[in-house]
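tool_call: predict_structure(chain=1)
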Amino acid sequence: MSSTGSGYDLSPTTFSPEGRIFQVEYATKAVENSGTSMGIRCTDGVVMGVEKVLLSKLLKKGANKQIATISEHSGMAFSGFGPDSRQLVNRAREEAHSYDDTYGSAIPPNVLAERMSQYMHYFTLHGALRPFGTGAIVAAYDPERKEHQLYMIEPSGVNFRFYGCALGKGRQGAKTEIEKLDLNTLTCRQALKEVARIIHILHDEAKDKPFELELSWLCEESGWKHTYVPAALKTEVEEAAKKEIEDAEMEEDEEEDEEEEKA
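tool_result:
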């Protein structure tokens, strides 16, 4: 019965005989059932994109954003429960402000990621708490080292530094597409198009609800400040991504027709 979590999923402090913590696995499942978010570290900065699923047609465009600015040089994208994500954003802002107040400089990317992962891990250690039902992608720039970095933090509290990463229901598909890119030469402007293309490819219009694409960047062009991508540029890259997808589909259809004619 332990394989189903029966009797071992009442608290995040209880291990099953197989060594599993079901509460953490359930939190991870909540992230996997949400919209896709992804980040790519480029030669001149970091780009993040989110598939923000629209639960209602009455929602105001641009509301309930899933990408947040933590400090001048850092930002966070997330997949999972919105309220849990807001709590993480508030905590990250407190950490950034506290570090700046104490040391008089911007919080280094690795310190921010480590403190946030410790905070999330803390919620898996006490029976009176529950794990966060959200995962986070952190993009940050270190002004002292002149270095930009990308991290991903999972509900378990583990964090890793990445060149490209993804969360949500399209995580595996996004990782496969990112691996096809040459991240050693990719620029942020090129990455914006790739992120838009990947998210549109992974979105199933027949099964999934409509979505709004959110894009942000932290790069030389933005003065190493985390900002949302300008609306005009966002529209441009999104239209270019859609056209590329349509052209690829037309080529596939033509190839299939040629094969049928030969047969």
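agent: The first strand starts at residue 37 and ends at 42. Proceeding to next step.
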